[in-house]
Every structure is written in C-alpha cells, then in structure tokens.
Amino acid sequence: MNDNPCTQIRHDFPIFEVSVDDQPLCYLDSAATTQKPNQVIQAVKDFYQSQNANVHRGLHTLSEQATTAYEAVRRKLAQFLNVQSREIVWTSGATASLNLIAYGLSDSLKKDDVILLSPLEHHANIVPWQLAAKRTGARIELLPVDAQGILQLEQAKALIENLKPKVMSICHASNALGNINDVAALIASSKSSGTVTVIDGAQSLLHLRPDLQQLDCDFYVFSAHKALGPTGLGGLYGRYELLNALPVYQSGGEMIDTVSFSGTTFRPAPEKFEPGTPNIAGVIGFGAALDYLAAQDHDALFQHEQSLYQSLLQQLSGIDGIRIWGDTANNVGTVSFNYKNEHHYDLATLLNTHGIAVRSGHHCTQPLMAHLGIEGTIRASLAFYNNQQDISRFIAALKDTISLLEE
Ligand code: PMP
C-alpha cells in the first residue's frame, strides 16, 4: 500500500486537521490510545442526540432500540474475533477485564500453584495476579526474556512443560516494545497441562485482528480505545464453560435472576459480569469502529504499518548513539529507544516542541525496564493512519533535539 490510500484514510480522522501548539499534529502514540475516525465520533453523537435510553430495562421504543443496537455490537465483535457472542463480556477496559479474570480464577488456585507471566507484561497483567497469588498462596513464575527484551520461545515451551502452570497470562504484543509474542505456540505447549490461558490483547486487536478459535486461548482481553473505539470501554472473551463457571466479580442490578433477603441468583454469562448501566454510547461507538475496520483491507493496512515501521527503524538506526530495544523482526510497529545516557523525559519534552507526540517513561512496565537495566525509553508507536511524512518529521525533530542536547 502506498501513501495514497493512507491519505484517504487520514481524512477520516479529524484530529489530523487540528494544530497542537500551532503545529500540525505528528501522532506517534497509538499504543497509548488510537485516534478516532469520523464514523466513531458520529455514532457516539447520534446515540446521545437521537437514541439515548438505558438498555435491558424499558419496554419503551427508545430503550428497545438502544438494547438492540448495544447487543448487535456484541455479535459484531464476536464475529470479528470468531467466537460466540455469549462469550463476550463488556468491561471498562483491559485492566478491568484482567482483574475480573484474576479474581475469578483465584477460586480454583491453591497454595504453590503456578501463575505464569512474562517480564514483558503491563502492570495491568501483573498486579491482579499478585493479588490473586496473595489470596491463594499460588506463586508467580516468569517466562524467559533475553537482554534485548525478546521472549525465548524454545526455553519458554520447556518451562511450561516443566512447571505445568495453572494459569498463563501473557501479552500478544508488548506495549513497551511492540514485540509480537508467538502466543499460539505457548498456548499449544500448555494444552497437555490443562493450563488456563489468558492473552492480553490490548496491543494486538487492532494490528493483528486475531481469530480466537485459531489461537485457542481460554481468555482474551482488550481495550476499545486502542482499536479506534471510545475510552472507558473494553471487554473480554472467555471460552463459555470457563467463563460461565467464574464467580461473580462485581454485583448489582441487571446481572441477577432473582433477589430476596434470603438469597440472590445470578444470570448466566455474560450478563452476570455486567452489573449496572453499561457504557452504552461507548459500545455503539465501538460498533462503528468495527464496521470501519471491517471495510478496510486488513492486509494492506498491516503492510503499510510495517513499511512505515521499517523506514522508521532504518532511519533511527542510522543515528549515532540510538539504542533500540525489543524484537524488531516481529513487531506491531512500536519503536522503543534511548539516546546515549540522555533522559527519555528530556528527549520527549524537546520532541513535543516540534509537535511530535511520543510517549516516554516506563510505559507501565517497570519490571521490564528493570530487566533491561534502564529507567524508561522513548516510544514511538504507529497505526495505519500514519504516513511517511510523520516519519520524516519525527526523524528531523529527533536530529534537531539531539544536536541541541549535544551543544
Ligand atoms: N495491557 C497492555 C498490553 C496495555 O498496553 C494496556 C494499556 N496501555 C493495558 C493492558 C491496560 O489497558 P487499559 O488502560 O485500557 O485498561
């Protein structure tokens, strides 16, 4: 895909018409959150303007329409992921999904059971498991990752067979480095041990569009805002028998069958995990994001991202003193780097004066940064709406920043 279809796509994203600090925006922070196409913004606006009502509650027309639209998105997402719609639970995001799963699986964990994670994980895929371990006496073990931040697949498979973990929860793609992990191979290795497999898909839903039946994981979590959708919404897929067997996490209205002071009975999944009024407008907006994605040629978009990524890598590696981390051969288009011993914060602040939006810091992966022996990195993360001009502007600004720092 050349830059022409990309130019077309960029017109769908109104933020690129906005000036930030009097400069056109150069947005290289899509791993934090993606920009939203007009279709998503319009769907949220339309909902509040002409369809707003609560779901699953009223018999009146508007409420029925809202319920139908809301449930249609569950089916749309199920189709997108190639699973059943009753296997999709809406939550407020990947963080909430991981908490729900870690809390729920605690019931089946006991002392010395192994919860297998990796040093690449986001804090959201570490802390809920630490709490689960504390509650149950289970222990956390880590998959091997080398000094560059790359998961060591063969050693990892051997470790899985050896440890026979009760739970394995790993990211499909690292938010800090962009590495794509071969999660299918890890899941396959864990099958003979009956391990419950949880995939953190926060960074993979948009770039990799996984077929979850093919992946064969038990749970998969995501955030809608990292895949063109609104913030405050995410969800999880759970293999139905496992999902339905999980205990209730949060409770209240809508998730019950009957309530009396002698006891309460709960509805089956997914309802039993969705108490209270959900993020209806968010779900409707995400439905528009899924429609938008379905209308695009995914392979072409992925190739476009990858060619921008290669160009970014090549130009960055040509700058003396740049140290790039992670697996550059399997990557969703995120470059994480340092320049000599300069503080990442100083670089990002100076880049911002050129209108460049990148992230700097530990990226909610402090254990990974400790493993790499650094405090943080500068992270430039791409999405299909980026173009070659973004890369050129970023490289020019970086060179300018470096010469300023070297003065
Ligand atoms: N996991 C990964 C890999 C992430 O990148 C993020 C967000 N940075 C999360 C989990 C948490 O997502 P959210 O903040 O949307 O709940």
Report strand order across the widest sheet: 4-10-9-8-7-5-6
For the termini, the CA-CA separation is 40 Å
CATH topology descriptor of the largest domain: Aspartate Aminotransferase, domain 2
Quaternary assembly: single chain
Characterize the overall form: globular
Helicity, as a percent range:
40-55%
Integer tally of domains = 2
In the CATH classification, which architecture of the largest domain applies? 3-Layer(aba) Sandwich
CATH superfamily of the largest domain: Type I PLP-dependent aspartate aminotransferase-like (Major domain)
The main β sheet shows up as: 7 strands, mixed
> What's the CATH C level of the largest domain?
Alpha Beta
Ligands:
4'-deoxy-4'-aminopyridoxal-5'-phosphate
Q: What's the total helix number?
A: 15
> How many strands appear in the DSSP assignment?
17
Outline the structure in words.
With 407 residues, the chain is of the alpha/beta class. The chain folds into two domains: 3-30 and 297-402, Aspartate Aminotransferase, domain 1 (Alpha-Beta Complex); 42-294, 3-Layer(aba) Sandwich (Aspartate Aminotransferase, domain 2). It contains 15 helices and 17 strands. It has helices at 3-10, 38-51, 61-81, 94-106, 127-136, 153-163, 183-190, 205-208, 212-215, 240-245, 280-294, 298-317, 344-352, 366-372, 388-406; strands at residues 19-20, 23-24, 26-27, 88-91, 114-117, 139-142, 167-171, 196-200, 219-223, 234-238, 256-260, 263-266, 322-325, 334-339, 356-357, 359-361, 377-381. Helix 3 (61-81) packs across helix 11 (280-294) and helix 12 (298-317) packs parallel to helix 15 (388-406). It is globular, with a radius of gyration of 22 Å. The two termini are 40 Å apart. It binds 4'-deoxy-4'-aminopyridoxal-5'-phosphate (PMP). The site of 4'-deoxy-4'-aminopyridoxal-5'-phosphate has 14 residues, from helix 4.
